[in-house]
Amino acid sequence: MIVTNTIAEIRETVFNLKKDGKTVGFVPTMGALHSGHLSLMRTMKNHADAVVTSVFVNPTQFGPSEDFDAYPRQIESDLEKCRNEGVAAVFLPSKEEMYAEKQLISFQLLGLGDHLCGASRPGHFHGVIQVVNKLFNIVQPNFAIFGQKDIQQFYVLKRMATEFNHGIEILMGDTMRESDGLAMSSRNAYLNEEERKIAPKLYENLQDLANKIRNGTDDFAALSASNRDDLRLAGFTIDYLTLVEDEFLQPKNRHEKGEKAILAVAAYLGKTRLIDNIIIE
Ligand code: PAF
Q1: Is the CB of 199 under 6 A from ligand 1?
Q2: pLDDT digits over 1-25, tens only?
Q3: Does any domain span residue 12?
Q4: What ligand 1 atom has the least distance to the C-alpha of 30?
Q5: How many domains does the chain have?
Q6: Which of 33, 131, 149 for mutating ligand 1's site (highest number of atoms within 8 Å of CB)?
Q7: Does residue 44 lie within any of the structural domains?
Q8: Residue 180 lies in a domain
Q9: Closest residue (by CA) to atom 5 of ligand 1?
Q10: Contact call for residues 74 and 30 (beta carbons, < 8 A)
Q11: Residue 177 Cα distances to 103, 162, 276, angstroms
């Protein structure tokens, strides 16, 4: 497995893989790899001949009061996991390698960033687009994969790849869950023992609400009221619990039986912000 800190070397590595006739699948990460990331690598292996991963905790996607400093960093065990998954190359850039010069150009996100995490984390998706655009231009893979758990990120990046003609096929990876249903996330490590016991109730609640929505509703706000109460009683502080249109992610209050939509939640347990979603087909 090639491990490199430089743009020049990861470019050369991918160039050589492609020269040998191999397709390249890219799994961008911020490290602290868990089974969710490994599942993305495995899915990617079914699509591409060689898997390339990046580990970079991108400062520009964290707000000033967010957890950039606390974000778990465990590079040696991350590399071990990549080796075990048969990853061909890992790109581990420094901040200086990624942001060598003053950044004078920024992206404007229209519509897609107005709701869900885009509304509660101002600037977050600008940072995500900025770094993934760079990573796509550096690595130039055939495929890239992002998990369903960060569903707004998935749709924003899929749209970016289309609108900016990256020529990269964007895949969605399933949300991996602990045995009690909690969606895997590097941030779960922040939960204390008590919070960890409560955390699975988020997905239980979401499943309950998704079942109610599947039959159709004229009034999501009313339908979801008791679910909000239950979450608050369990100890969550709700950031959002929203039903949105597929792909364009605009909130909807009315749902026809059989329509595709996304039920998404973000809630705090203590200081830990958990997100999850269910795609209603
Ligand atoms: O999902 C993540 O881990 C990050 O947002 C990403 C896509 C690697 C960009 O920094």
Answers
A1: no
A2: 999 999 999 999 999 999 999 999 9
A3: yes
A4: 3
A5: 2
A6: 131
A7: yes
A8: no
A9: 128
A10: no
A11: 37, 30, 10
